[in-house]
Amino acid sequence: MATLESFCVAFNAAFPLVEFLYECNPNPFLTKEGDGVDLSGARASGRSPISENSTGPAAMGPDTSIKFSFPSMEAGDTDASGLCTIRLLAHLEVRPSRIDSLPT
To answer: What's the pTM value of the predicted model, to 2 decimals?
Structure first.
């Protein structure tokens, strides 16, 4: 469980660096401000990320669907979650100096 927790912390710290998820489409899994993770996709749908049943934006956590962690190169709105890991790795690959500035 410690590995999963470490992955979630690292994902939530680094994923806001990915401004565009597919080509020039804004990352729909960031908060409106773009400084946090919201895997609910509320930003793309234009709805509020806070509902009666939630306490705020949906960050990566142990209960998050695994579809956000497994890479998939399928393009399209229904497959955007599979691009999260791919885009994050691509972003960090070309910007190694930013990795050092992430919280541990």
So the answer is: 0.72
